[in-house]
Amino acid sequence: MVTALLYLLVMAFVGAMLFLAASAVFGRSEELAPLPPGTTLTALPADGVTGADVEALRFQQTLRGYKASEVDWALARLGREIDSLREQLATVEATADDPGDAR
Questions:
Q1: pTM tops 0.70
Q2: How is the chain split into domains, by residue range?
Q3: Which NCBIfam families does the record match to this protein (predicted)?
Q4: Is 57 exposed, middle or buried, given 0-12, 13-18 or 19+ CB atoms closer than 10 A?
Q5: CA dist 89 to 82, 83, 84, 93, 98, Å?
């Protein structure tokens, strides 16, 4: 009888320690409000993205890498910036090559 009681107390102690360890690791089950759909914590400036901005990008990590929606957003944003810069460059080159502009 004493042995059974001792086993029960040891099991209760081990269970309590596991519970406390899990509570410390995983918190008190409080969750932050989810981000609205289509938003991300990843940020780039609205205009004039620089190399330093791209180097400073950080993505949320998931089980198998980075969060795909954040990476897709960043790539789309950088693609628009590149298209805008190429458009500006083409406009400047067309203006420089325009013979009517020579004096």
A1: no
A2: 39-96
A3: DivI1A_domain
A4: middle
A5: 10, 10, 9, 6, 14
